[in-house]
Design goal:
The chain is of the alpha/beta class and 218 residues long. The protein contains 9 helices and 7 strands. It is 47% helix and 16% strand. Helix 2 packs across helix 4, helix 4 packs parallel to helix 5 and helix 6 crosses helix 7.
């Protein structure tokens, strides 16, 4: 049976780390919306040119355009047995669009579709964001409390000096949570009403959360 997974949760809840790990474990593609759009822009495709025109103005890429890019990606052969979608949907409007896309793609397939919600206390989330460090060269993410590099201030993978993003501070974190609560949190009820929501406790080590995740997706 085809397996389709999306992850829900506020910033710094650990979705990204677990998404990459699960994609490798299941052998499914990790479909990252942000990376898809960047690839379209880099290729100079018609969709990429349109997306860039909005981004250059500091505007959001239209939902329908994002949906088109995602649909084309999910139609590829490596997604025929399943996929993990990251970064979409982020609102009820996007979820409605995604349901239309899924119905078109899965017309003749039996599908196990699940939305996994990473539940974590706000104070813990803020602590994670403030202590987050990233590698400007390879993109690896660290946390001084939960996933510190082996060498202080250096990336384990490529050795580059780690940086703290300008928006990884308490004030910005709280603002991001307000946006999340307003736009994205309603998706929890959306998928709960569809009887496809699984909730896991996202507090603890990466391995502890991983074990909880496996119990709801396998």
């Amino acid at each position: 049976m085809k397996k389709e997974l999306i992850f829900l949760g506020p910033p710094a809840c650990g979705k990204g780390t677990q998404t990459n790990k699960l994609a490798e474990y299941l052998g499914f593609p990790h479909v990252d919306t942000g990376s898809l759009l960047r690839a379209e822009i880099a290729s100079g495709s018609e969709n990429g040119v349109i997306a860039k025109s909005f981004i250059d103005k500091g505007q959001l890429v239209p939902v329908k355009l994002v949906g088109t890019v995602i649909k084309h990606r999910l139609m590829k052969d490596d997604c025929k047995n399943g996929f993990i979608l990251d970064g979409f949907p982020r609102s009820v409007e996007q979820a409605d669009l995604f349901e239309k896309i899924r119905k078109e793609l899965d017309r003749d397939n039996k599908v196990d579709f699940r939305a996994v919600y990473f539940d974590l206390d706000t104070e813990v989330l803020i602590s994670r964001i403030v202590n987050r460090r990233s590698c400007p060269r390879c993109g690896e993410i660290y946390n001084l409390k939960y996933k510190s590099p082996q060498k202080d201030g250096k990336c384990d993978i490529c050795g580059a000096a780690l940086i703290q993003r300008k928006d990884d501070n308490e004030e910005t974190a709280k603002a991001r949570f307000c946006t999340y609560s307003k736009e994205t949190a309603p998706l929890i009820d959306y998928y709960k009403n569809m009887n496809v929501l699984s909730t896991i406790n996202a507090e603890g080590t990466i391995d502890e959360v991983w074990e909880r995740l496996l119990k709801v997706v396998e």
